[in-house]
Each structure stands twice: as structure tokens, then as C-alpha cells.
């Protein structure tokens, strides 16, 4: 398979790379028989984030977008399939359950170890090879790079977490994945508005991409934003684009992205 069938990559000129690893919706024809009818609707997609963050290209940032659904393979899980959040329910490298806990696969349809390994090589690894290479290209050009990993999720999912999530959940692996001054600058942007509730390093501290690539001592600074669907779509119909809701959150996303682009490790702009 050609890597361009797995993802699209826009190469920018500024020190920011944006990844949206869960926007893909495709499930290959030779795998569809494994899934329940419900699963084929790919309900746990990070709906429309490629459209929502498309503006970053005009600001000079790089943007990498996958084609395939997280139900095929989760690009934000480690290839070793280690749980991201020990002690609570998690979905796997090749998820077997919806975020509500029900099975994704028909009886006997879940992938075995050989199939999981095949999916890693065909779908997971090309995305990560491209992301790694783009981060290195940008870091070499600017002396540092910020990786922004964008996600979205339904506000209430009892199988995964208790209660009602804040609208915006910024994750920096508890401060380990980026310089403290970048974390503080982004937290200040969130604190400077009152329309959207927010938290820093709460339930969602960052998945594999944030934790693995975030190496501030090497000039790679990674942050994750888990945004509730309610910020930009109707949560009962998330697959439908909602321009009026999107218009409400876009100025804040623009401010966050510009902050990441303008930030410098030495404090200069």
C-alpha cells in the first residue's frame, strides 16, 4: 500500500506540526465483514477535526491527516498495546469495544496477533514514520518544533470516565512532554476566556503521540487537546457539520495555534 493511501501530509514552514489521528473513517473492504453494523458507522470518530483545523495550513503549520478509522487501528496507542491510563477502562491498539463498552466485532471477528501485526505495518507505521520525519524536518529548520495532537470526544461516556468532561482538556503528560513555559502560555489562553470550561492535565493527559514524541530536552514539545464534541457539533448528530457551533470555538482554536507557532524555547518571539 502506498503511504499516501494511509494519510495526507501538508508540509508547512513554521515550527508547528498538527496531528489529528482519529479523524479517519475508512474501513478496508476486506475487513468490513468482521465488524457489527453499528461499528461500520464508526461512531467514535473525532468528527471533522481535519476541517476544523484546516486553517493551520494558512498559518504555515504542517498538518497530517489519516484516512482509516481508529476501529481498524488506533494511531494514538503504542505498538506494544500498553494501556494509556492504567486502572480504568481503555480501548486497545486495535479496539474491540465502542466507547460505551459494547463489542465492535462480530463473534469470532476480532483480529488475532498476526492480523494486528499486519495492521501495524500497513497502517500504523507509515503514519508514524511520516510524523517522525516531519517533526525532524521542522525541528532541523527552526531549532525546535511544537507537536499539537488534536482530538475530540463525547462529553459523557461512563464506560471511560465519570461525570461530564470540561469542554477543553489540555494534556502535556503532567508537564513532561513540553517546556513549562509553553504549557503556561496555552493555559493562560484557556484561562483568558469564559465561554468554554477547561482543565490542564486532567483525565486526558495525552496519549501515545504526546508522550512518545514529546522530548523537550531534544527540542520537540508536544501537547494534546481533547475537545468535547459539544464545542463544535450537536453531540446527538456529530457526523453532521455544524457551522454555527464551529464558528463559536474557532477564534479560541486560532489563538491556541498562534500561541504555539509564536512560542520560542528561549522566550523570544
* Alpha-carbon Rg, integer: 18 Å
**So, the CATH homologous superfamily?**
Zn-dependent exopeptidases
Assigned CATH architecture: 3-Layer(aba) Sandwich
* Major sheet: 7 strands, mixed
Uncertain parts: none
Label the structural class: alpha/beta
Distance between the termini: 42 Å
Order of helices and strands: EEHEHEEHEHEH
Number of E-type strands: 7
Strand content: 5-15%
Q: How many structurally independent domains?
A: 1
Q: Could you report the average pLDDT, rounded to the nearest whole number?
A: 95
Assigned CATH class: Alpha Beta
Strand order of the largest sheet: 1-3-2-4-7-5-6
| CATH fold-level assignment | Aminopeptidase
Number of helices: 5
Helix content range: 25-40%
Nutshell version of this structure?
With 269 residues, the chain is α/β, with parallel strands linked by helices.
Architecture overview:
The chain has one domain (3-262): Aminopeptidase (3-Layer(aba) Sandwich), CATH 3.40.630.40. It has helices spanning 49-52, 113-142, 180-191, 208-213, 243-262, and strands at 7-10, 16-19, 62-66, 145-153, 168-171, 198-200, 220-228. It has 269 residues and is of the alpha/beta class. 27% of the residues lie in helices and 14% in strands. It has five helices and seven strands, in the order E-E-H-E-H-E-E-H-E-H-E-H.
Looking at this protein, list some descriptive labels:
269 residues, alpha/beta, Aminopeptidase, seven-stranded mixed β-sheet, 7 strands
Amino acid at each position: 500500500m502506498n503511504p499516501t493511501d494511509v494519510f495526507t501530509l501538508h508540509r508547512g514552514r513554521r515550527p508547528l506540526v498538527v496531528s489529528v489521528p482519529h479523524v479517519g473513517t475508512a474501513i478496508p473492504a476486506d475487513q468490513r465483514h468482521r465488524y457489527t453494523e453499528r461499528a461500520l458507522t464508526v461512531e467514535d470518530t473525532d468528527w471533522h477535526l481535519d476541517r476544523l483545523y484546516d486553517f493551520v495550513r494558512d498559518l504555515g503549520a504542517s498538518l497530517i491527516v489519516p484516512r482509516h478509522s481508529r476501529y481498524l487501528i488506533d494511531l494514538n496507542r503504542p505498538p506494544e498495546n500498553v494501556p494509556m491510563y492504567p486502572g480504568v477502562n481503555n480501548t486497545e491498539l486495535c479496539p474491540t469495544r465502542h466507547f460505551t463498552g459494547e463489542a465492535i466485532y462480530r463473534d469470532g471477528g476480532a483480529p488475532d496477533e498476526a492480523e494486528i501485526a499486519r495492521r501495524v505495518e500497513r497502517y500504523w507505521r507509515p503514519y508514524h514514520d511520516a510524523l517522525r520525519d516531519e517533526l525532524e524536518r521542522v525541528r532541523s529548520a527552526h531549532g525546535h518544533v511544537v507537536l499539537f495532537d488534536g482530538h475530540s470526544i463525547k462529553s459523557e461516556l461512563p464506560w471511560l470516565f465519570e461525570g461530564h468532561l470540561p469542554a477543553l482538556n489540555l494534556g502535556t503528560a503532567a508537564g513532561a512532554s513540553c517546556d513549562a513555559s509553553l504549557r503556561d502560555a496555552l493555559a493562560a489562553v484557556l484561562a483568558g476566556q469564559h465561554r468554554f470550561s477547561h482543565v490542564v492535565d486532567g483525565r486526558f493527559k495525552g496519549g501515545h503521540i504526546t508522550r512518545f514524541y514529546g522530548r523537550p530536552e531534544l527540542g520537540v514539545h508536544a501537547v494534546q487537546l481533547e475537545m468535547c464534541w459539544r464545542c463544535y457539533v450537536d453531540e446527538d448528530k456529530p457526523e453532521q457539520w455544524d457551522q454555527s457551533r464551529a464558528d463559536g470555538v474557532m477564534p479560541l482554536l486560532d489563538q491556541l495555534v498562534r500561541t504555539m507557532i509564536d512560542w520560542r524555547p528561549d522566550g523570544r518571539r
